[in-house]
Amino acid sequence: MLLNENLVQTDKVAASSVFWAQKVKLLAARASLKAIAIPEVSVGQPNTKLLWCSASKTAFYKQEQEAEKRAETVNTLELRLRLLQEEVRAVSTCDPERLQQLREEISFARAALERWTDNIFIIREGLAARDIGCFLCFAPSPYRV
Known about the structure:
The protein is mainly α. It folds into three domains: 1-40; 59-94; 99-145.
C-alpha cells in the first residue's frame, strides 16, 4: 500500500528488497494525499469548515449547559422530595386511619391486661382459700411467729 501511494521507495539488493523513503518526498506525498482527501472549499462557501467547527463547539456547550440544568433540576427535585417526605412523617401522626389502628391496638392491649389481672386475682383467691399462698410466700403466714 505504501508502495502504491509512493510513500516508500524500494531497491533490489541481491535477493532481498530494501525499502526506504526520503523525508521531503514523504511529506510531499502526504500533503498531496491530504489535498485529495479534503475537497477544496468552493467560492460560495469559503468558511464551511470553520462554521462547522464553531457550530459543533456551540452544540457541545449547549449540551453541557443542558446537562448542568438537568443536574440542578435533579438536585432541587431530590430536596423537594426529602422535604415532602418529612412533612408526610410529621402529618402521619394525625392520620385518621393510623389513629383508628392505634385505638384498636390500645383496646386489644387493655382487654389482655384485664384478662391477666382477672386470672391473677382468681389464682390468688384460690390459693388463699386453700391456704397455699403462705407456703408460696404470696401472703403472710398465720403459722409463722
